């Protein structure tokens, strides 16, 4: 076999062209084979089928690029839960825009690494401008807003806790019971005290309980509020929380991984009032920004807040190189090698502009409101609440939690729909996180029909196409390693 | 503007095709404009040019996808340090294979997220098989080898220290003075004691000094050895270090980010003897594996060693879902949303096979040996040593450190070559990290000619094409935040 061609250089584009043609054909073939939001049959079917199609992963003699691309990409597409399908709506799992995926190809081909200027001359300039511009969207009145690009909200939240730790020592984090799991995980990682969870009985952080916690706990304190919760897409009362933090001398981090991009919508940005009072803000453009993973951000109002990330490695940022004018980029991340995620984000923002992005956001939120309206009109379904952003919780009227969980798994198992789950008001709900701006009212009605039909099937026992154990398995016995997190969740079969 | 199309679904490939055509044309145009390994002029030229070409990043009204892609991708390519150019050889900054970059497009288009099965049915099966297969390459005799995919060696090293901390509490890390900077950074991040640095006067960790440190320090201890150092590409005496660790009851982590893929070469794998005695191993396939960033791995000999990463988030891995057979993937990373980097790696391994990958590795190492031979034959250049992997240190004969640093910056400034720098034997060297399997002997000779010609220019003062301050700037004054790390480095101008 001749030495396989590289993606870069003058010859790269010509080498890529036929390979990409194979990839696009395989993506289409895989989607045709799948024929729905995800393959039917669950892991018991998909895992062995994928394994067979891709075996052997490390052959002695290669099968050549076209065969391997056709083989593996077809298998991946045939076995995908494709967020571009309107019935794939479980998670904050966005369907990427074609233009963003196309831009990301250039990042792969050129392979700039963001840890030193001499690996990314133009990419580092682009990233610096983009992070400054995005930080200024979040902190329009701050003296020197800045941001660093992360692998997502989880890393951004981790950095927020790390920066607080470096400013104040072993800071005590206080977050709502509605906060993302990454807050607790970050505290564990960083050797910080376990976060104190303030109740959020109505879905948002309870202000009286927060006031009490701030009064009782010793400083230094870091409050984490959420703008767009994972379970219900609600937004904590940011401005009132900022007031309490100011009163008690606590710092505030806002996890706006989900809700942050509402800033681009003149219609919806008022939902984020108070966001710019935070010491740091998490934002993910691989959620309401339609980027392929990953496109996370941590923003701060003043550039010098990022100083604790500065780091010295003579091969990357020797003093005399820095002194001679080579930018020192190592302190822009905890990673070293780092992909230029700024490119796809910048292409998207320039291609769409503020108005185009606002249109996508407004369209998506309107879709969610329409789904909620359809639920309220359907006597077989209960609605949790009208959505704040684009998360709609619903459940079959009168169903117990076990049935709700089984409806979700049955839809998955049949390959009919990918819905999430969330606890609220002591009950389990089906969760539809709408992120697809192309979803139509007909798609939404079809999704509700799938839910009600599946519920009826389950309750009348006409689910003979499913393995019995997926429906009648007895409640899980909690183990030491996996304690039941929500004692309110009833697993008792009807 | 109509709602822009998505990358996924049945219509995605057709939407992607014209956009990708624009990207490939822009990559070619940018490479033509650049006409070399990197643009000339340094940051003072590249940064404003990039800024002008890409301004405004967030316009009110979008310019449309083709304009934005053409504009930004051309700017990025024109301003790239392209590792596919044979004279771009500073860092472990690989030129990706076209087939790997093409595979990565499918990851962007489908956007599976690896944190739950219902976002990545086939991708999670593929990742599980791939990580098991790669771990078995590293630990061929272990009972249940496993690995997790990381953003690179930095995250893998961080996980290694984290796993040791979770097993033993506040573990004391001992590493060589030749270890990667990420070891120290990981200890800081995790709240662990600062690593003890054992001397590595000849480039590899000194065994007597390690023995002494292991004797003096209190357990629990974690020794970090390096297989492929950043500065010289040398490999610590792994087997002897494993013996010392066994004697003293210390654990061993091996950072084989660079050298690990030598396992695939029957010719060179003996260099890694002892690798499988480590409690964990870091490996980066975005170095000697020709993947676009990122493609890191942390491997362990027994699956249960990864248990401390297990994590519970009811929306992703509810007990009853796990009990019903949905795989629990959240514990495969500290990240939540996570790109399927397994795809490009699997495509590469299947396309090339062991023999094809071994051929790339052998070819690259032969290139490095050829460069070293050329240096030894050149009276104007000194060679540090024959390369162990593919890193060649050289310096103009008789030059002082300031001249060496200036030669490097001059080559960068002129857009002629991207070379790294490293300290060894108390002196500063130019570093060529060869990772391009297409580099020819003629390319290498031309690179050496560039070095000797530039040195002659500098020493005879014929460098009028450069801004004066890039050559005559006085030595940097060490600051509190950036102390000079190597007191042996002389910055005194001649």
From TrEMBL, chains A, B:
Record keyword Transcription regulation present: no
Cited Gene3D superfamilies: Aspartate Aminotransferase, domain 1, Type I PLP-dependent aspartate aminotransferase-like (Major domain)
Region listing for Disordered, in residue ranges: 462-494
Molecular-function GO term, any one: transaminase activity
Pfam families per the UniProt record, alphabetical: Pyridoxal_deC
Cofactor (UniProt): pyridoxal 5'-phosphate
Cited SUPFAM superfamilies: PLP-dependent transferases
Alphabetical UniProt keywords: Aminotransferase, Decarboxylase, Lyase, Pyridoxal phosphate, Transferase
PANTHER family in UniProt: CYSTEINE SULFINIC ACID DECARBOXYLASE (PTHR45677:SF8), GLUTAMATE DECARBOXYLASE-RELATED (PTHR45677)
Family the entry assigns: Belongs to the group II decarboxylase family.
Protein name: Aminotransferase class V-fold PLP-dependent enzyme
């Amino acid at each position: 076999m001749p030495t396989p061609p590289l993606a870069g250089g003058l010859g790269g584009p010509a080498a890529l062209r036929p390979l990409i043609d194979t990839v696009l054909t395989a993506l289409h073939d895989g989607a045709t084979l799948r024929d729905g939001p995800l393959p039917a049959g669950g892991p018991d079917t998909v895992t062995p089928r994928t394994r067979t199609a891709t075996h052997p992963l490390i052959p002695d003699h290669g099968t050549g690029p076209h065969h391997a691309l056709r083989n593996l990409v077809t298998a991946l597409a045939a076995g995908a839960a494709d967020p571009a399908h309107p019935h794939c709506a479980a998670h904050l799992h966005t369907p990427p825009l074609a233009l963003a995926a196309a831009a990301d190809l250039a990042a792969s081909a050129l392979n700039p690494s963001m840890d030193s200027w001499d690996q990314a001359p133009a990419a580092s300039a682009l990233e610096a401008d983009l992070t400054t511009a995005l930080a200024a969207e979040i902190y329009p009145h701050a003296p020197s807003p800045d941001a660093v690009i992360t692998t997502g909200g989880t890393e951004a939240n981790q950095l927020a806790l790390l920066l607080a730790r470096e400013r104040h020592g072993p800071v005590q984090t206080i977050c709502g019971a509605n906060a993302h799991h990454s807050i607790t995980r970050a505290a564990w990682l960083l050797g910080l005290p376990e976060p104190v969870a303030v109740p959020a009985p109505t879905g948002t952080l309870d202000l009286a309980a927060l006031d009490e916690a701030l009064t009782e706990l010793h400083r230094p304190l870091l409050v984490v509020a959420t703008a767009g919760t994972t379970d219900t897409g609600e937004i904590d009362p940011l401005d009132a929380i900022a007031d309490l933090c100011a009163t008690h001398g606590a710092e505030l981090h806002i996890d706006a991984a989900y809700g942050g991009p509402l800033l681009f919508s003149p219609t919806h940005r008022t939902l984020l009032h108070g966001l710019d009072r935070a010491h740091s803000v998490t934002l993910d453009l691989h959620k309401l920004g339609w980027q392929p993973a990953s496109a996370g951000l941590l923003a701060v109002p003043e550039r010098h807040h990022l100083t604790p990330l500065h780091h010295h490695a003579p091969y990357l940022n020797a003093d005399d190189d820095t002194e001679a004018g080579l930018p020192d980029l190592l302190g822009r991340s905890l990673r070293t090698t780092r992909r230029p995620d700024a490119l796809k984000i910048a292409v998207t923002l320039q291609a769409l502009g503020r108005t185009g992005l606002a249109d996508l956001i407004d369209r998506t939120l309107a879709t969610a409101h329409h789904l909620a309206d359809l639920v309220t009109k359907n006597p077989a379904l209960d609605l949790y609440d009208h959505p704040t952003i684009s998360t709609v919780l619903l459940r079959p009227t009168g169903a117990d939690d076990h049935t709700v969980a089984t409806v979700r798994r049955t839809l998955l198992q049949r390959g009919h729909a990918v819905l999430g789950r969330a606890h609220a008001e002591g009950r389990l709900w089906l969760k539809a996180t709408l992120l697809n701006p192309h979803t139509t009212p007909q798609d939404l009605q079809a999704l509700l029909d799938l839910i009600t039909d599946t519920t009826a099937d389950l309750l009348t026992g006409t689910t003979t196409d499913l393995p019995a154990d997926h429906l009648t398995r007895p409640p899980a016995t909690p183990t030491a390693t996996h304690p039941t997190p929500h004692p309110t969740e009833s697993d008792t079969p009807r």
